[in-house]
Design brief:
Distance between the termini: 45 Å
Shape: globular
Largest sheet: 6 strands, mixed
Radius of gyration: 20 Å
Number of strands: 11
Helix content: 40-55%
CATH topology of the largest domain: Ribosomal Protein S5, domain 2
CATH class of the largest domain: Alpha Beta
Structural class: alpha+beta
């Protein structure tokens, strides 16, 4: 029996976000400490199996409320089903034949939820990888992030940009250019210009995020030391933080439009600093990215406090 397992890692935005959805430029890297894994195997019917995150039985109403806060009302099954739908649509549209063998598919993920580590898109990327191998379909790598994005934006109505899907598809460290004049259509999808960079260029990094636990861990990712710190507070999804940013941009609000250009400029400078090995300059740019983002978005106080604590300790930080 054919059995396929594919992983996709969490991601961290190093520079430029949230300009990926506004014709900007970004730098991002995968975080190999956390991953989504999808398992697909031959079966007599098409079956999507619920994971622990899709539970519908609870010990108390408080447990139900906590589950909804962490996972929403739909869990990850909708992501898997929507990916299958979009994959089939892509194949039909491009005349790619699909064999008649059915399958069972399930997912699991240890990516912390709703803290900006791209756990949802990791499930979609891993599912797409399974489907491509199962059916023997090769979708160009440059197109895959845009197909993944369409699962969320078109099929599920989730506001998102290309950055997370690009770095989770390419892995490692990636410089991305989404400028209007650089975007090109491939296989019916808009694609930017993506440049993989050597992760060894990175200095030691850390990630701090808030959850309902108070544990802290340290691990290795991309052959660099990546410190992960968790704080005892509930998190807030970035789509809530930036709920009205799209409307302000489309209305041509000068401050927002100007900021997106500045995010792109900071990213170009960060790429140059990485290639030159200028860690001090990179740190200054990371701080500048946060200050710029804070100037156009009302950020949650606890995230701001985490950044301020990091800076007080002599570290650079951004949200």
């Amino acid at each position: 029996m054919l059995l396929i397992r594919k992983n996709a890692y969490a991601r961290a935005g190093l520079m430029g976000n949230p300009s990926d959805g506004y014709h900007g430029k970004t730098l991002a890297l995968v975080v190999r400490n956390f991953q989504a894994q999808v398992t697909l195997y031959e079966w007599d019917q098409v079956e999507v199996i619920f994971s622990q995150d899709d539970q519908s039985r609870f010990e108390s109403v408080d447990e139900l409320v906590r589950d909804v806060r962490l996972h929403g009302y739909y869990g990850g099954v909708r992501l898997v089903k929507a990916t299958i739908r979009k994959f089939v649509d892509y194949c039909r549209r491009h005349g790619l034949p699909l064999h008649g063998q059915n399958f069972s598919v399930r997912y699991q993920s240890d990516v912390p939820r709703q803290v900006g580590l791209a756990g949802s898109s990791a499930i979609i990327v891993a599912t797409l990888r399974c489907l491509m191998e199962f059916y023997g379909i090769e979708i160009p790598r440059q197109v895959q992030p845009s197909l993944v994005l369409s699962v969320e934006t078109e099929e599920l109505g989730i506001a998102a940009g290309l950055q997370d899907r690009v770095v989770q598809t390419y892995e490692g460290l990636v410089y991305m250019d989404f400028a209007r004049e650089r975007m090109q259509e491939h296989c019916g999808y808009p694609c930017g210009v993506y440049e993989p960079l050597d992760p060894a260029l990175l200095p030691p990094l850390y990630i701090a995020y808030s959850t309902e636990t108070s544990n802290s861990v340290a691990a290795i990712a991309n052959q660099r030391e990546l410190h992960l710190a968790r704080a005892r507070e509930a998190s807030q999804p970035t789509e809530i933080v930036h709920a009205n940013l799209r409307a302000r941009y489309e209305q041509g609000e000068p401050e927002v439009v100007r900021a997106m250009v500045q995010f792109a400029e900071l990213t170009v400078q960060a790429r140059e600093a990485l290639l030159a090995g200028d860690v001090q300059r990179l740190g200054e740019l990371i701080d500048a990215n946060f200050d710029l983002r804070r100037s156009i978005c009302p950020l949650p106080r606890r995230q701001v406090t985490m950044v301020e604590c990091a800076r007080a300790a002599g570290a650079t930080a951004k949200f």
